[in-house]
Amino acid sequence: MGADGARGAAEADVRYATPEEAAAHAGAFLKGHSRVDGAAMRREADDFFGTEDRVGGEGPWGCEGD
Questions:
Q1: Pairs from 20-27 (Cβ < 8 Å, separation ≥ 24)
Q2: Whole-angstrom distance, CA of residue 45 vs CA of residue 60
Q3: How far is CA 41 from CA 38, 48, 55, in A?
Q4: Which of 3, 20, 22, 48 has its C-alpha lying 20 to 30 A from 31's C-alpha?
Q5: SS (H, E, C) 19-63
Q6: What's residue 56's pLDDT?
Q7: Which secondary-structure segment (H or E) carries 9?
């Protein structure tokens, strides 16, 4: 899964000639899906865990204004 939440569909019939080729395809997928939306992650975490026990600020790294 990419950092942006995108999932790559692994096809059963796709075979790579070498482990390096497979790693290159995986790396290309991850590079293309590397953006993270901190606000969306905070909302998802709040929906899942709630907000009553949150420690730190509102920013994604626990600081105000992030």
A1: none
A2: 10
A3: 5, 11, 16
A4: 48
A5: HHHHHHHHHHHHHHCCCCCHHHHHHHHHHHHCCCCCCCCCCCCCC
A6: 64
A7: none
Side chain identity at residue 22, one-letter code: A
Nearest to 26 by CA among 48, 10, 49: 10
Token duo for residue 30: 């991850």
Task: Confirm if 38 and 7 have CB atoms less than 8 A apart.
Answer: no
**DSSP class of residue 64?**
T
Residue pLDDT, tens place only, 19-63: 999 889 888 888 877 777 778 888 888 899 888 877 766 555 555
